[in-house]
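Morning, I've got a small favour to ask if you have a moment. I've dropped the whole record in just underneath, so have a look.
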Amino acid sequence: MLIEIDFNSPQAIYIQLRNQIVMGIAQEQLRDGDSLPSVRSLASTLGVNMHTVNKAYAMLRSEGYLILDRRKGAVIQVEIENKDAEIEKINHNLRMVVAQAICKGISKEDMHAVIDDMYENF
């Protein structure tokens, strides 16, 4: 999986890194059991501070996308302990997107088509 950081983006680098890893998991470029590069190695490759990579890995760990193993380092392991809680988080995150769509006159049918298309592409 190729990770590309946009240093001109207003989005924080650790968020870009986190998002690209989540996308890699969703697109099955990364699978359960795959090891990610070490913090130091990935930071060097990307040309960023190792604390930035560490923050992204910590975020992914707290969100249930990876575990930290002493021998293997950061390992992809997607956990879902409570599906209802995950749905509630997604609901919370999508509220603003739906509000923006409504403000811009985008119909429910168009939104459904966008989401259906996204699922097909993943």
In short: The CA atoms of residues 83 and 89 lie 10 Å apart. The first helix runs from residue 13 to 26. Residues 83-121 form one domain. The mean pLDDT is 94.
